[in-house]
């Protein structure tokens, strides 16, 4: 019954989306009754599809094996958390989650957005409904999550790599970011329809972009840490197409976040901001397409069904093509914004946008070109870390250098000499970093070396906007910017340290033997059996000591799952103040010795600490803007009374 | 001010991207990594003997003027079990097949040939995947057609079906 | 060149207790020489595992990836350069096996497209700035 109720709810939600689209479109032609109904319909639509999603979670929680999706992706012996997470650990369920978040984003616009002109807001909600409608159709006609089957007693289980508490919440976070970008997209479409692009529009759009961007940042950071500790090989970013699919919207959203600020503050970059809004969500959809269409093979991609791929591609062509056509047709009515000087904060932000966009193009080209080349000529190539690091790396460093200077520039026009004075401390910090690297680290590769220097300079420069100000007077959104930029420096330092200073040792060990990795001595105590809830594990007792320090016991496991059959390496990680000791138990060699992989990764944690700082900075900024908006709204409301 | 045609550039690029994705979708990324050695002389390799009285496969035996098949398989591989019957039938029709077993051991192989038949003229275990890598083979089962001068004519990836068997025989005939 | 050989011979002649009974399995165990291990590790990070598709052989549990790691370490230990080993693998499995695309006509767009984007973007920015100076 629950499954049928879910399917019914999905149909109703689709009908409501159709109604929302029609009312929004007609309401634009001055039909006030219809116009007034758009927002309530948007909220009802979100409530209905949320119910459908709740039904899916319920059939997974009850292990209802008569539902095809449950039977093929779950198992009754799984812990409850993974039963529930199983609801979105598959193609149909994740698409339902996708469209649920889309509807929720639309509902929040309907409920909370008060600053947009009424017609732009209506067009925005109509655009949101149009997107939802296509994906409802996709679910109902090509990916029904509630289909039943007869007579299955036990399910096939969930990929063990995905059975991890962090990963249970990873897709919802990432999707909130992906799909949250739909708000910016719909805002842009709405503004193109009505032609009202200006600071008001930018201020209205900014919180939505910021919120989605925070989720994307958290999703990417957490996903990277997940790959780091579950795959068991010490890597944290693989330039895998699925990772790239999440990076591309983030790059576009980061650019958008900055251009929208120019539009809000200086009324500049109007057309470009609209373009980026379309681009950011387009990249989200391209990412969804890459993961869900079966076009690529990846550790993370599961669904392989060309029919579905064509369906999603048709939706992509409709929405992206439609928005870009609207852009070409209507952008002429958007007048050019105000101007600025070559040395100004606007100019720095423009170049930042340019570099972010080129990096996006690199990621896009590196991800898609191999597919295109193989499809057209049969020539199979691989594009991986060596390409991305060497091509995008220098541009990213250039962008980070610019990022150090940007916040120290004045809007509209600035004096180069004054700027030099302001960046002097940062240049000094960079020089000190260079000196420190030369003295303590000796010879390291050029890219990590530059990374450390830029990180040092950027860290100081990002704090500079706080200088000579009373800290309690600094607005919250300035703190947000400072923290986010500092996070970039911290993350960059972590990446550079990991790439320059990581030590690894791969060894075959008998119990009682010791191996050295970096400053650590690691002794294998014993290897014992350890049954888990739905797997069997071999667990190594490894005792690590640094110099004469206290011994630390670490217990990496080699886990054998049966449903589906798969082996995973569960790493044991010890975090010290200056790095992580990362130990992995491999298989038993023919001669009875155990294969152990040991890594000492100095300051690697900074990568994710930086990511967290960036997200927290975004959060502070969002709270700061929201508080100021609320205060302004309160002020407006008081005015007539006074 | 006039922005001209440039406002349509994003649409053009977007549509080009969609077209590219469509091409990629119509011909999804293949899982099959073909060997680059087809058309070249077979690489040097040796194997470790398995059954008493059956010599191990080695590259040195291939330049004797007689074309034959080289089958890379493993006792633990399910499709290999499926194709074994077909290989036995090919042998009955006079086809010579040398076998290379990867990641395998003598006991498992002895059981395997006892259960599924032994179509092999020579049979050996590939130590540490060296022969497999030398052939540019990326999985099991794979079957190479090798002519009398030791040149690789063809690589068949996956289990040999009845149709494949006929095709392989035709190639061997042609190479004679 | 001769000194390490003599040293190795001396090691081999040392009491059996001083050296492991079996030679190490280089699929899972690092080379003793840190410089060579670093070369091998860097190479293995850029060789794509043919079985698991998305991962480098340095990060895969597949048997064939282990075979390739062993082969890479043995060849590097023997004195091959990383690029020689890469070329050997490309000669057998094609360009697909290397995560580091070679520059040739078919792969040129990987560099030309970003370059075009950068040039186009700079041109757009420059046009705006130039217009400003004539205001």
How is the topology of this model organized?
The complex is a heterotrimer of chains A (642), B (176) and C (135).
Chain A: H1 2-27, H2 32-61, H3 68-73, H4 80-86, H5 91-112, H6 118-142, H7 165-168, H8 170-194, H9 199-230, H10 241-266, H11 270-292, H12 306-330, H13 345-377, H14 385-405, H15 416-441, H16 446-463, H17 476-501, E1 503-509, E2 514-517, E3 520-531, E4 535-546, E5 552-554, E6 557-562, E7 565-570, E8 572-576, E9 579-588, E10 594-602, H18 606-641
Antiparallel strand pairs in A: 1-10, 2-3, 3-4, 4-5, 4-6, 6-7, 8-9, 9-10
Helix pairs in contact in A: 1-2, 1-6, 2-4, 2-5, 2-6, 5-6, 5-8, 6-8, 6-12, 8-9, 8-11, 8-12, 9-10, 9-18, 10-11, 10-13, 11-12, 13-14, 14-16, 15-16, 16-17, 17-18
Chain B: H1 9-26, E1 48-49, E2 68-73, H2 78-92, E3 97-102, H3 106-116, E4 122-126, H4 130-134, E5 142-146, E6 152-157, H5 162-175
Parallel strand pairs in B: 2-3, 3-4
Antiparallel strand pairs in B: 1-4, 2-5, 5-6
Chain C: H1 2-13, H2 34-44, H3 63-78, H4 82-93, H5 109-133
Helix pairs in contact in C: 2-3
Counting structural domains of chain B, the number is 1
**Overall geometry of chain B:** elongated
Rg of chain B, Cα atoms, Å: 22 Å
What is the terminal-to-terminal distance of chain B? 77 Å
Order of helices and strands of chain B: HEEHEHEHEEH
Strand content of chain A: 5-15%
**Ends apart, CA distance between termini of chain A:** 58 Å
The portion of residues assigned to helices of chain B is 25-40%
Oligomer: heterotrimer
> How many H/I helices of chain B?
5
Number of strands of chain A: 10
Number of strands of chain B: 6
N to C succession of SSEs of chain A:
HHHHHHHHHHHHHHHHHEEEEEEEEEEH
The CATH class designation of chain B is Alpha Beta
Descriptive notes:
The complex is a heterotrimer of chains A (642), B (176) and C (135). Chain A has 642 residues and is an alpha+beta fold. Among the domains of chain A are: 1-163, no CATH class; 415-501 and 605-620 and 633-641, no CATH class; 503-602. Chain A is 64% helix and 12% strand. Chain A is built from 18 helices and 10 strands. In chain A, strands 2, 3, 4, 5, 6 and 7 form a 6-stranded antiparallel sheet that branches. With 176 residues, chain B is of the alpha/beta class. Chain B has one domain: Glutaredoxin (3-Layer(aba) Sandwich). A 6-stranded mixed sheet of chain B has the order 1-4-3-2-5-6. In chain B, a hairpin with a 5-residue loop joins strand 5 (142-146) and strand 6 (152-157). The radius of gyration of chain B is 22 Å and the shape is elongated. In chain C, helix 2 crosses helix 3 (63-78). The longest helix of chain C is centred in the last third of the chain and has 25 residues, at 109-133. The model of chain C is unreliable at 1-21 (pLDDT under 50). Chains in contact: A-B, A-C, B-C. The B-C interface holds B 31, 33-37, 102-103, 128-130, 132-136, 138-139 and C 27, 50-51, 53, 63-64, 67-68, 70-71, 89-94, 96-97.
């Amino acid at each position: 019954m629950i499954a049928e109720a879910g399917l019914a709810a999905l149909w109703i939600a689709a009908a409501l989306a159709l109604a929302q689209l029609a009312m929004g479109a007609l309401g634009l032609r001055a039909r006030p009754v219809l116009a007034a109904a758009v927002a309530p319909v948007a909220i009802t639509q979100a409530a209905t599809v949320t119910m459908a999603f709740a039904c899916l979670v319920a059939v997974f929680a009850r292990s209802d094996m008569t539902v095809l999706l449950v039977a093929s992706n779950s198992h009754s012996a799984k812990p409850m958390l993974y039963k529930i997470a199983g609801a979105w650990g598959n193609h149909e369920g994740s698409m339902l989650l996708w469209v649920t978040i889309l509807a929720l984003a639309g509902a929040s616009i309907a409920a909370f957005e008060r600053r947009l002109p009424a017609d732009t807001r209506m067009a925005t909600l109509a655009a949101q409904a149009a997107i939802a409608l296509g994906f409802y159709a996709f679910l109902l006609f090509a990916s029904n999550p509630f289909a039943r089957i007869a007579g299955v007693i036990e399910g096939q289980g969930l990929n063990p790599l995905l059975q991890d508490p962090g990963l249970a919440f990873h897709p919802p976070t990432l999707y909130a970011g992906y799909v949250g970008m739909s708000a910016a997209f719909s805002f842009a479409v709405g503004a193109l329809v009505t032609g009202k692009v200006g600071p008001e529009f930018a201020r209205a759009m900014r919180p939505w972009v910021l919120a989605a961007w925070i989720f994307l940042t958290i999703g990417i950071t957490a996903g990277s840490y997940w790959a780091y500790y579950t795959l068991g090989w010490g890597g944290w970013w693989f330039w895998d197409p699925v990772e790239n699919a999440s990076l591309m919207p983030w790059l576009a959203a980061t650019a958008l976040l900055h251009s929208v600020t120019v539009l809000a503050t200086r009324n500049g970059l109007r057309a470009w901001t609209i373009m980026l809004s379309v681009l950011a969500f387009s990249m989200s959809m391209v990412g969804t397409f890459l993961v869900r269409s079966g076009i690529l093979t990846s550790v993370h991609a599961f669904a392989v069904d060309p029919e579905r791929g064509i369906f999603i591609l048709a939706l992509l062509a409709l929405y992206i093509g439609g928005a870009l056509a609207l852009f070409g047709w209507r952008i002429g009515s958007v007048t050019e914004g105000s101007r600025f000087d070559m040395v100004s904060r606007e100019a720095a932000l423009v170049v930042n946008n340019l570099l972010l966009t080129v990096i996006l193009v690199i990621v896009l080209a590196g991800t898609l070109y191999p597919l295109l080349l193989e499809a057209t000529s049969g020539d199979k190539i691989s594009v991986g870390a060596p390409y991305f690091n060497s091509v995008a790396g220098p541009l990213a460093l250039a962008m980070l250098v610019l990022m150090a200077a940007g916040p120290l520039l004045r809007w509209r026009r600035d004096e180069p000499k004054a700027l030099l004075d302001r960046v002097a401390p940062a240049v000094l910090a960079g020089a000190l970093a260079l000196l420190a690297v030369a003295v303590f680290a000796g010879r390291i590769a050029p890219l990590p070396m530059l990374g450390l220097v830029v990180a040092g300079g950027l860290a100081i420069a990002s704090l500079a906007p706080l200088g000579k100000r009373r800290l309690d007077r600094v607005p919250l959104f300035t703190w947000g910017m400072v923290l986010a930029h500092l996070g970039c420096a911290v993350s960059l330092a972590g990446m550079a340290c990991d790439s320059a200073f990581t030590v690894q040792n791969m060894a075959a060990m008998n119990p009682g033997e010791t191996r050295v990795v970096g400053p650590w001595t690691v002794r294998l105590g014993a290897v014992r059996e350890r049954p888990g809830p739905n797997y069997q594990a071999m667990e190594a007792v490894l005792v690590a000591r640094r110099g004469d320090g206290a011994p630390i016991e670490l217990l990496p496991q080699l886990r054998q799952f049966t449903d589906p059959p798969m082996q995973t390496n569960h790493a044991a990680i010890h975090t010290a103040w200056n790095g992580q000791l990362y130990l992995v138990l491999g298989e038993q060699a023919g001669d009875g010795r155990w294969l152990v992989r040991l890594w000492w990764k100095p300051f690697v944690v900074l990568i994710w600490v930086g990511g967290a700082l960036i997200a927290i900075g975004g959060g502070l900024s969002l709270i700061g803007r929201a508080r100021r908006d609320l205060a302004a709204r309160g002020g407006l409301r008081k005015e007539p009374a006074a | 001010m006039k922005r001209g045609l440039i406002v349509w550039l994003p649409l053009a690029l977007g549509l080009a991207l969609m077209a590219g994705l469509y091409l990629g979708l119509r011909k999804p990324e293949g899982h099959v990594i073909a060997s680059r050695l087809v058309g070249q002389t077979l690489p040097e390799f040796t194997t470790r003997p398995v059954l008493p009285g059956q010599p191990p496969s080695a590259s040195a035996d291939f330049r004797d003027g007689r074309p034959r098949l080289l089958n890379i398989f493993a006792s633990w591989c399910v499709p290999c079990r499926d194709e074994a019957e077909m290989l036995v039938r090919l042998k009955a029709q006079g086809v010579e097949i040398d076998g290379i077993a990867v990641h395998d051991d003598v006991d498992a192989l002895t059981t395997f040939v006892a259960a599924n038949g032994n179509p092999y003229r020579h049979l050996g275990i590939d130590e540490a995947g060296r022969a497999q890598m030398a052939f540019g083979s990326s999985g099991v089962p794979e079957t190479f057609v090798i002519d009398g001068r030791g040149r690789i004519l063809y690589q068949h990836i996956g289990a040999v079906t009845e149709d494949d068997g006929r095709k392989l025989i035709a190639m061997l005939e042609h190479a004679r | 060149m001769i000194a390490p050989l003599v040293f190795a011979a001396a090691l081999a002649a040392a009491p059996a207790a001083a050296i492991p009974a079996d030679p190490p399995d280089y699929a899972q165990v690092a080379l003793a020489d840190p410089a060579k291990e670093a070369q091998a590790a860097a190479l293995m990070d850029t060789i794509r595992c043919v079985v698991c598709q998305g991962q480098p052989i340095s990060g895969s549990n597949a048997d064939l990836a282990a075979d390739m790691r062993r082969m890479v370490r043995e060849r590097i230990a023997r004195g091959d350069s990383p690029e020689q080993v890469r070329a050997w693998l490309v000669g057998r499995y094609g360009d697909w096996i290397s995560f580091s695309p070679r520059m040739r006509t078919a792969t040129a767009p990987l560099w030309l497209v970003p370059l075009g984007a950068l040039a186009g973007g700079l041109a757009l920015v420059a046009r705006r700035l130039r217009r400003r100076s004539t205001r």
